[in-house]
Specification:
- The complex is a heterodimer.
- Chain A is an all-alpha fold.
- Chain A has one domain: MetI-like fold (Orthogonal Bundle), CATH 1.10.3720.10.
- In chain A, 39% of the residues are buried.
- By secondary structure, chain B is α/β, with parallel strands linked by helices.
- Chain B has a single domain, classed as P-loop containing nucleotide triphosphate hydrolases (Rossmann fold, 3-Layer(aba) Sandwich).
- The termini of chain B are far apart.
- The chains are: A mainly alpha, B alpha/beta.
- At the A-B interface, helix 5 and helix 6 of A face strand 8 and helix 3 of B.
- Bound molecules: adenosine-5'-diphosphate and magnesium ion.
- The site of adenosine-5'-diphosphate has 10 residues of chain B, from helix 2.
Amino acid sequence: MNFEVIREYLPLYQEAAVLTVKLGVLGIIFALLIGLACALVQYYKVPVIRRIVAAYIEISRNTPLMIQLFFIYYGLPKIGIRTSPEVCGVAGLAFLGGSYMAEAFRSGLNSVEAIQTESAFSLGMNRVQAFFYVILPQAAATSMPPVVANVIFLLKETSIFSAVSLMDLMFTAKDLMGIYHDTTECLFLLVVFYLIILLPVSILGSLLERRLRYAGFGA
Amino acid sequence: MGKEDIEDIKEEGQQDGGQAMLSVEHLVKRFGTETILDDISFRVNPGEVLVIVGPSGCGKSTLLRCINALEDVQGGKILLNGLPVAEGGRKSPSVGTKIGMVFQSYDLFPHLNVIDNITLAPCKVLKKKRFLVEAEARELLKRVGLEGKEKSYPRELSGGQKQRVAIVRAMCMHPEILLLDEITAALDPEMVREVLEVVLDLARQGMTMLIVTHEMSFARAIATKVMMISDGHVVEEGTPEEFFTAPKTARARQFLNTFTYESVR
Ligand SMILES: Nc1ncnc2c1ncn2[C@@H]1O[C@H](COP(=O)(O)OP(=O)(O)O)[C@@H](O)[C@H]1O
Ligand SMILES: [Mg+2]
């Protein structure tokens, strides 16, 4: 391993890592919002819209991110919508992640028994109060493990951004390898940077899970 | 709804002279095509304890759920102090907190400890000051023998303790009427008494209640009136003395016989 090479490439990787994290975080935030909205539509069985949501979830879960990205990147300009690769990356991640987050939130909401809502109503709470004080805290505890797993999954999926010529970590590694053939160093840096991004998320996630579980249910 | 409509309903609710707190008139409840409650009518006056008995599956829970506006009804009226309990399929806001209910299955909020379970609704719904509600809650917990359990979570309590907390939680909303649906049915026998004592205590304080129970000696002790439902109809209604010692209908006699055993010797 040539540390001279590593020192030389480091700034390029740093730049790529910042881009990866930035787009990844944005994509995940939108995925969480889409997921929550979809889960609520399904939980409260909103007519018509829930069918659209169900179709979206099936499409999103059963097609690869690569193909979703190509659709957005090459398809949208065809119908007159011009976007940048960055927007495509975020949109692709949000489109894919939305359905995964929806399933995570839905499993949480469904785990709360109907009697909980009825008790809340019996105590005079309205729907909104019942949701925020009774249903959501219980659902959040159940949803947390799959949500954390999805965050990690989506951060890893960002490695596909290079397909729409975004200069993310993967793109940088492939680019440098193609030009200079320093395969070992390039791959080493790639792994290290992904670990730097993912390990803290993973650790934070399990801490959060434990906090929610213990604080929430008094074990 | 205009003021005049409300006056109209009030008058109807107070027909034949009584100032009924709760009045159920010609209630019909169906699930799909199956009629569960068919033309049920009765009154509950302030301070009365009406015990509802009947075979399993006859619609006792459904009746309480209708009164608490947890179910939509297909016919008839349910009025509390002359006002309909439901409006557009939901519990009407004016009635909202005046009906309290405790269920058979444990229904405490598992993510909140005992004191938070009790204070949540008074603070958020009635907008009361937390320290005031908490003081009241502690007082009531002490009264039902749960002093020191304030910080416990539901999963750390026995079934009997959970039901006592549930009663205190309902009472802290100061309901005008309390609905109890077989609140001891899921309990081990030795815990039944500690919960029923609390209910007896409420009755002594004059609490208006509608109680569904299979504990016949408790029913006899607490009821001011007993009503038996079977096949969707009220088959018999009377004082506990009348009902338990001299039931008028064959159906009621048959039902009461299921609680006694003939000696084999
Ligand atoms: N949500 C529901 N949908 C369909 N049928 C129901 C529902 N809830 C109760 N029932 C039916 O209504 C009848 C009365 O039930 P319930 O009120 O629970 O009886 P009880 O409390 O007297 O044992 C039963 O036959 C039951 O199967
Ligand atoms: Mg029942």
